[in-house]
Every structure is written in C-alpha cells, then in structure tokens.
Amino acid sequence: MRTEKDEYRRLYKEKRESLSDKELEEASLLIFKNSTEWLKDQKFHSVHIFLPIKKQREVNTFPIVEFFWRAGVPLYTSMVQVSTNTLQTITVPKNVEFVEDKWGIPLPVEFDLIEKPEIDLIFIPLLAYDESGARLGFGKGYYDKFLYELSYEPIKLGLSFFGPEKELPKEAHDIPLDFCINPQKVLTF
To answer: How much helix, strand and coil, in percent to the nearest 5, is found in the chain?
Structure first.
C-alpha cells in the first residue's frame, strides 16, 4: 500500500528525472550562488554536508565543499553504517579525492571518524519540503536518526531544485528544516 509520502517521493523523483543534465547543472549553480550569498552573512565553525548521489540527481554540493575549504571551515559528511542502519560522521579533509561507495555516495578516500561531532550547520538532502520546513527524504530515516542523536541544536539547511509544497504529510519523528535554498531564494522556517 502506497502512502501519501510515497506518492510525493515518486512525484519528486520524476520531477528530477525530467530535468536535463544542463538544467540540473544550472539549477545547482544557482543554488550554490544563493548559498554563498546567504553564508557570507553567517559565521559557522564547523559544517556537515551531504555529497551528491549522481544516480539520484541530487544538488551538486561540491562547489559548496570548495567554498568551505577556501574559508578554512572544518567540513564533515556522513557514511552509512550498514550494521546499525545509521550515519557515521567523517571528516572531509581539504582537497581530498572522493570515491563512490556501493550506493553511489561520494566519500573522501582519506578521513577520520568523529564519534561526537559538534557541528553548527548541517546540509540535509531531500526530495521535497513544505512551507513549514517539513522535509521528505528517501524514506530510510537516516538524517532524522542522526539529528535525534545530537545533544545540541544545529542549523538544518536543505537544498532543493524546486519550491515548497503547501504542506507535506508529517510524522512525530520528522525533524523540520530551519532553512531551504532553491534556485530562486533562501526560505526561512
């Protein structure tokens, strides 16, 4: 039985697939420009960023990675811990090379595992979001679990090729975004 969330996931996967490679590249560039415009007025000491899965046609975050490298801000990402179905935080050293894991997730070839990360800003992947900041991911709950395990409240930032839905279905365990950046603007929730 398909849920309402499943229908939104299907719709947004189709929307991504309908974009040409050139449209994806141009939209990612606009998101990068809006991100750096927003970031210049912020002060973050450490940042966690998702790295784009090509086959999922995610926003290209590598220009943002390079932005933080140039700024000297410590950068982290996650790697899936299969045995626990959770995310592990790892470092993204400056100018490191990346290799894709079995899911197509780019990972740094060299990294340190961070047990208790202290991160100011977390870029969170999504398929869709709504006007209140509710986020719809791929349905595995990795980022909700990751956020629940933190003992502090980081800024949660989504990146999307599309504008928000009026309202998405929500569950008690869903953690909303604080901001979302799309090719047109930065939304605050």
So the answer is: 30, 25, 50
Report pTM. 0.93
Rounded Cα distance between 186 and 170, Å, is 22
Helix crossing, 62-71 with 21-39: angle to 10°?
30
Mean residue pLDDT of the chain comes to: 94
For 175, residues 6+ apart whose C-beta sits below 8 A from its C-beta are 135, 143, 144, 147, 148, 156
Tokens matching residue 117: 């990360």
Residue 82 contacts residue 56 (beta carbons within 8 Å): no
Task: Please write down the long-range contacts of 160-164, taking CB distance under 8 Å and 24 or more positions apart.
Answer: 160/31, 160/59, 160/126, 160/128, 160/129, 161/15, 161/16, 161/19, 161/24, 161/27, 161/28, 161/31, 161/59, 162/12, 162/15, 162/128, 164/129, 164/130, 164/131
Residues 89-104: pLDDT tens digits? 999 999 999 999 988 9
- Which candidate, 73, 168, 64, places its Cα nearest to that of 126? 168
β-bridge mates for residue 124, sequence order: 158
Q: For residue 19, what are its two tokens?
A: 């974009």
